[in-house]
Design goal:
The chain is mainly β and 180 residues long. It has one domain: Superoxide dismutase, copper/zinc binding domain (Immunoglobulin-like, Sandwich), CATH 2.60.40. The chain is built from one helix and ten strands, in the order αββββββββββ. The protein is globular. 41% of the residues are buried.
Length: 180
Amino acid sequence: MSTKIALVAAAAIWLTCTAVALAQDKVPMAKAELHNNQGELVGLVSIGETRDGVRIVAHVHHLPPGYHGFHIHEVGKCDAPDFKSAGEHFNPYGAQHGLKDPKGMHAGDLPNLLVAPDGTGVLVAYAPLVTLRSGGNSLFRDGGTSFVVHSQLDDQLTDPSGNSGDRLACGVVTRVTPGM
């Protein structure tokens, strides 16, 4: 329980500080609360617009140790137990899967999330092919988008999903209003 409180507090502080710092520029921000298939909160993803795409900070807890595929998915729905409602990886450009694919990558492809033996993990990543502003690559597009934590390591190459396994947790991307 204290891990959950610390996780939520750290994410809230980050969002508040970033919102205050960026409020004058009206830089878009977002978040996604990750829930497992029992509906329990297991993480928080904070998302902020940068010059080079979006910065993603994910804090997770109560997940199995090891590497997990972590992706942005094409639909803003997270219906348990399997989270298939989130659709496939966010791929507005019709690219192949994987950060190691020489032909490019899905816009929603991200590095693997490492979870420690105590079930916690933090990932800081940049997604250069997405935005929080308007456009076909926006995380706020019609139908929304979501973040999904998978059960296995993403091999960063195999199309369409890197052999990353079942979906363990899911969170819908929602807008954060600076100053609130």
